[in-house]
Specification:
Layout (H helix, E strand, L loop, with lengths): L9 H23 L1 H12 L3 H9 L2 H15 L4 H21 L3 H15 L2 H12 L5 H12 L1 H5 L2 H33 L14 H9 L2 H33 L3 H30 L3 H21 L5 H18 L2 H7 L6 H29 L7 H24 L24 H6 L5 H10 L18 H12 L1
Amino acid sequence: MEPVEGHSNKHAAAAVFSVMSVLYFFSILHRVGIAVISFDIMAEFETDASLLGLMSSAYFFPYAAAQLPVGILLDRVGVRKTVVSMAAVACIGSLAFSTGSSLLALSVGRALVGFGVGGFYISALKAIAIWFSPRRFATLAGLLTSLGNVGGIVATSPLALLTLWIGWRGTFLAITGLMAAFAASAWFAISKEEGDSFRSGSSVRADLREVFAKRDFLVLALIPFFVYGFFISFQGLWGGPFLMDVYGMDKSAAGLFLMFIAFGFTIAGPTGGLVSDRFLGRRKPVMVSGIAIGLAFWSTLALLGDSMGGIFIATAFFLLGFGFGFANIYMTISKELFDSRISGTAMASINLFNFMGAGFFQYFMGFLLDSLESGARTFPAYQGVFFMCVVFMILSLVLGILSKETFGGYGARAEPPPSRKDTVQPAAASRDKKPSWAPFLRLLSKHNFDWQDSSQHPFAPAKPDVAAASMSALAKSS
């Protein structure tokens, strides 16, 4: 990891990145952990798929609601205060979820968790923008999602096995304690604050108008609504029941296959960023290829979803995660559409559409499963859900092709705060470019400045003299 010039302490920058990655890990763990305990909750509270989906989606709507306030806070009070405050809310919610005695209590707890962890991802991206060079943003953003998505891996088979040992309540109580410990460590790790170029000096209304009035942003915004909405609804809730209902798997086997989604995402995140930053020098091809892979996955499930072998399922699930890892570069695109002073608001705004889609489709998929095939949750019911995904993934692919290429845009050209001694320059320019005095000397020669006559205006022309002739010769030699 390469800290931005001016943040010379590599250890401090690495500490900031590490603690933000761990907090994001807990965000993902809470997000998708419901999938392996869904049958436990349905049995304990005697609920159906629609109510389970509504309870699970209680995480996503508050998460979405948190995005704009978080972005605004990041652009005004900084990363440290924002992320620690949101972490406190998340810990309270996690405790409430772990000890809830009704589905309503679980929903309230999950809503608080969603709102609190809603500050983790955007805070981490803002921290990367502040503490590291813009030339590394897509790579480090991908690495962040990769490290955070280890929570998606832990939330599959390992979490299922832990719940079999200490129960789902004991498991989430342990998660609460660990999250609280890392939230406290964040206060000490994030010690340096950003400079003025990463702070907005305009009103909240003006910043929001600048973001939502931009056509390129609006074209981009619908992509995460569908792409992420479908992805997380399957990984985080309905993928497990699909495998259990259609293939008759038990919880631990279903968790094992779901792990392949997380594997794909974990590999693709930093790979997509590295390909974009170092090799292609473009964002759109990475995003469009990721959407296309996702479209292939949903088409496969819609046509062959009840007749896949174990290797086929594992490969398809891996490609779902890998495709989204590439498509997720739309977060970098949203940053580069705008100036760095409102990068928090811009990224939070696009993340808002991520979780609007997640909250809506988690519930809507459950509604369709209850409505189709008399609520039997057979393959034809799931097939109707998958065909819906195919249609809107095609729309997302078209929008991706129409979106704007932003490599080298605002966010990639952001200058560091005035308090830093050096500006962030491209590597080649900062190493190789040498100053030339020729233009200045030609100017002096052209006007024949007479520096000896102090009574004369400094820029009034004078008669040629030896000094002017000497400077003219020097200019020509340059």
